[in-house]
Amino acid sequence: MRVALVVPGGVDRSGEYRVIPALLALIGRLALQHDVQVFALRQGARADSWDLAGARVHNIGLPYTRLRALWALYNAHRSSRFDLVHAIWSGSCGLVAVTAAKILGVPSLIHIGGGELVCLPEIGYGGSLRWRSRVREKQVLRAASVVTAASAPVIQALRQLGVTAQRVALGVDLCAWPPREPRLRRQGACARLIHVASLNRVKDQQTLLFALAELAKSGTRFEMDIVGEDTLGGEVQALAHRLGIAGSINFRGFVPQRHLRALVAAADLMIMSSRHEAGPIVMLEAAAVGVPTVGTAVGHILEWAPIAARCVPVGDAAALACAIGTLLGDEEQRLRMAHEALRRATREDADHTARRFQALYDGLAAAR
Is this prediction's pTM over 0.85? Predict the structure, then answer.
């Protein structure tokens, strides 16, 4: 098949910076069987193209990105016909994919993997902040041949829009994250915690730091690695100083995947404080190396709780601190949770994701 894959970005020519590793893993696996042409709407401002993970990437550039993307898809189709158009994430990607598919007379798929359906006006986040966006999103999703979503909570949100979706998690590349059995914590040792996410409002590091401050007050000794690009201009670091916990936190900034695995594998718990997640993929990466997650009730965290993860209400720092402390104090339970998380992450890895999408491609081809 010839597949047009529409993505917002995450496919930088470096293959290491400004990329989404799970997306690259999917592209690489699809490219083993298909001619995959990737159309990146916002990888950079200039139109350009390059080879990556066995596929050809076409960066659309500015301005008039959606119109330029449609023109690029149309021209590529004229030179060699596409069999389908697949958007990873909806919003602009979904709109371009569905419109192009209608013009070209081929099926379309949309995968919901982010905040396309979310409305969080207090932090200005979500693809459904404006009523026009909500109406457009509903129309786009209903026009797609197939809709998939990363986790059960997102499928439930789609059901409320009258859209039927299939669950396809963006799995971990086990070549980059070789599975490792959970390790036993040394009794009385300082707890190793890790949080991997860009510093921004939706990841809600404020709640994370308040939870860590509560944990410190309870007498729990910990060292926290916070990994991710700072988009808040030092605001989170300043809060850590005000709360008196800066000495227990390492702000590491962006860390490439080749170094991240060692940091995650050394942790006892992955901690997530997000207001919204369709995944998160970092939870699956942590699970693959034997590290369970404690976090807010979003995405896979809610989906896996209470057997393979521990979840608390969004924004509840006290509950998050309590959940972390309780699990650190019960090594038997932490290991049971870690083993089940490992089983789930390896069962739905990147190979599984590619097979699920392949089955959908085959079904659309047979229907035609």
Answer: yes
Inside any domain, residue 184:
no
Q: Which of 174-178, 327-331, 341-345, 364-368 has the lowest mean pLDDT?
A: 364-368
**What's the token pair of residue 177?**
């994250």
Task: Quote the domain boundaries for residue 222.
Answer: 191-347
140 and 213 assigned to the same domain: no
What is the residue-wise DSSP string for 293-353? EEEESSHHHHHHTTTTEEEE-TT-HHHHHHHHHHHHT-HHHHHHHHHHHHHHHHHT-HHHH
Q: Which has the closest alpha carbon to 87: 79, 77, 95, 76?
A: 95
Same domain, 23 and 129: yes
User: Strand pairing partners for 4?
Assistant: 37, 85
Backbone φ/ψ region at 344: left (φ over 0), alpha (ψ -120 to 50), beta: alpha
Residue 182 lies in a domain: no
> Do 213 and 337 fall into the same domain?
yes
Are residues 23 and 165 both part of a single domain?
A: yes
- pLDDT digit string (tens) for 46-68? 999 999 999 999 999 999 999 99
Alpha helices in the chain (DSSP H): 21-31, 65-79, 92-104, 131-143, 152-160, 205-217, 235-242, 257-265, 281-288, 299-304, 317-328, 331-347, 350-367
Asked, for residue 176, whether it belongs to a domain, the answer is no
Q: Which residue has the tokens 């919003």?
A: 91
